[in-house]
């Protein structure tokens, strides 16, 4: 008899818990946005402080990622992961949490691929790109137009200096060039990006230089000029 009563008590507890979880999940859709560990404990954003905090963190992480564009992801990858390659593992890249990923440059690439070590603090990365690498030049060492553009930028003695990516020295250079073509509309090098926006190639910045517009554009982009054009 005692054993029978214990079973009834246990089943009553199980049914009561199931009823509570059923009610919470159907009356609070955001319940399913919580981590599984919190769901298992019966938390929901409306019924617990822990649930509210967890959901807020999830939403904040999603918003940070949303603010980052794919071009920001590409710039983060080439500046902060200089030895990583999109084709490093038999044509694929090893992404933490996702395994080996094939990058199709003709299709949108997930931001997680551009942060292959599992980073997700895109607010910090956007600030890093803005302050440390505001000017990125995609170039090829043998290209005369690339050489001319880099030489012109050197005369401005920029601080911070341009971050130069020599595509012909990278195994994934063709992949990056195709991604740039898709994102910026520019298929050739040099492709000069200021604060994540392409300002063109060699002829474009030469024209800006000759019309005295390049100095103001660079300064507006957060760069300091220390060369002969600094006081002009």
UniProtKB/TrEMBL annotation:
Species annotation: Wolfiporia cocos (strain MD-104)
GO cellular component terms, semicolon-separated: cis-Golgi network; fungal-type vacuole; Golgi lumen
CDD domains: GRX_GRXh_1_2_like
Pfam entry (one): Glutaredoxin
Source organism phylogeny: Eukaryota, Fungi, Dikarya, Basidiomycota, Agaricomycotina
GO biological process: cellular response to oxidative stress
UniProt-recorded Gene Ontology molecular function terms: glutathione disulfide oxidoreductase activity
Record-annotated Glutaredoxin domain positions: 136-199
The protein's name: Glutaredoxin
